[in-house]
Every structure is written in C-alpha cells, then in structure tokens.
Amino acid sequence: MKYCKNCGNALDDSAYVCPACGTRASTPEPAPAPVPAPTSTNNILAIVGLVLAFFVPVAGLICSIIGLRKVKECNSGKGLAIAGIVISALGIVSEVIAIIAYIALGSQLYQYFYEFFYEFFREYASLAMAMKF
Question: Tens digit of pLDDT for each residue in 24-49?
C-alpha cells in the first residue's frame, strides 16, 4: 500500500493521483523505447566480389571496388573487398598474359601438337595392325 507524500492519505498501488488532495502520487512507467529494425551488417558486395574474382575477374573487380566503398556503411567486409580486388587483378593480368602467349606461340604450339599426335596415332595404328585383332 502507498501513501500520499503531500497529505499522507492511503492510496491504491495502481493510483497515480491522490483522490484527497490531487497530488501526483507517482510517475507513470515510461513506455519502452522502440527497438530499431535490425540492419544487415554484412557487406554482400564484398562477398560477391571475392567469389566472382575466381570465376569472372572483371565482375569480381567491379563488385569488390563497390564493396570497399560500402565498408563505411556496413562496418564490415573490408578484408573481403581487398582480397577480391587483389585476386581479380591477378586473374586479369594472368588472362592478358595467356592471351598474349597464345597469340605469340599459338601457331607453333598447334604445329607441335599436330605433329606429336599425328606420329602417336600413326604408331598406334601400325601396332594395332601388327597385332591383327
């Protein structure tokens, strides 16, 4: 049981105002603060950029750069974005080197493999004929 601080009158436990003098008996309970909606803390573009870096380096590079710019918003994914940029750059450089090597050596490699397999199958065919299946 509560009592009024002003006049000493007995009050119900749920009373906010004293019925005798009108003084506020207690302050009402404040409403609970609204809970903010959970936000995603994952930097999805950094993750996508890292995965694409292995398969499509140009797309991985683009996604990783955008993911690195979004690190300020998400507070995560900086390492993933940097790894995606590095792996994408290495993939692009290796593809350019492979294309240059193919252009420079392509006709010579084709001739080498043609002669190798031609001789291999000719030898195999002569062995097969000698065995007379």
Answer: 766 655 667 787 766 666 788 899 99
